[in-house]
Amino acid sequence: MANFSLGGLYSTSIELNILVISGLASYWIGSLFFYPSRRYVNNSQFHNNTLIQLKKGFKLAVTMCAIVQIYLLWKFIVIFFQDPALLTRQLLFGTADQDSVLFDSKEFALLYFVFGQAVMRVAIITGFALSFFTGNLKYLLAGNLLCLIDSLLFLGRGALLEFAFQIIFFFLLSHELRRKVSRGMKSKIGLGIVTLILLGAIVGAVRGDTESINISGFVKNQIVNYHTVGFVILDQELSDPQSRLNHNTTFGMATLGGIERLVVLVIRRFDKSIDSVSGENGEYLAEFRVLGRNDEGQDLNYNAFATIFYTFFWDGGHLFVVIGMTAFGIWISRERALFLSGHASRLTILYVLIQAGFNSVFFPLLSQRHSG
After folding, report:
1. b/e map 141-151, b = 16+ CB within 10 Å
2. Which of helix, strand or coil describes residue 293?
């Protein structure tokens, strides 16, 4: 889609295509390393102890996350009635010079984005696993409700993307385990897809993206441009001899941005001159830039997280892209082999890795500041 400029964004160069193809080829090679020693096609091998541990983790994560989100949701509602103009994504997330209107300090905001959202991820993933193995959708619905509240708090689309991924992952698992999907489940999934489209249009309208309300605008903005803008940003950086990608190397700090920001947060208590690489990256990519033209010839201005290829390249150029993607492919193939061999608890790890691979094509998971 990026090559053909379907949504009006600039077409990408041959150099970018070579980089992406080499990265995906490396991932494919890595994914061939492990195969299941034996394959189980039903749930009889799912141990009760594992199910009990998943339920404990799910209940704890839901309780912790719900307490924090209820407080933030209350603040969001108060701001909505007192001064709705403050409810913009920039003010909700905060900037380098201004704290978020939802948090009292940058430290509290960072703790939520790193720990709070991590706990939410635990609730979502264990909820999916429990629903998949038990057939009870209440776990899935509870986890997705937390994700929906998080998206509402920051006017994002994270809940929509999460549910879309769960639909895809459900069919992948059913195929791997050779399960038949019942007609009732297909109807529920169809209803979920319609709900996704409606929620996407509503979120677009709330954010002021009026083109998202009509079908053509929704396809261009939410499906095409939203998932290709990162490649256009990367292409511009690669084509500019003066860009930071062609002058600076972070040697892994950009990839592990979430962890690095916590370390910097502690160090800054003693040395204010220390800056976070991922924080700098987030502020840099948050700047709007012209990335194309619409049908009327008007500039298309976007800010977005770049792809995982951007982060890997910044960490160490083409070599780091190949090494990183190969290692990721090996890791996924190992977890898949263990899961299909009867280690049911590996489903949660496999969920994280598959989603990380899916999302990281569009934005680097570890180095992002928040969910979309």
Report:
1. ebbbbbbbbbb
2. strand
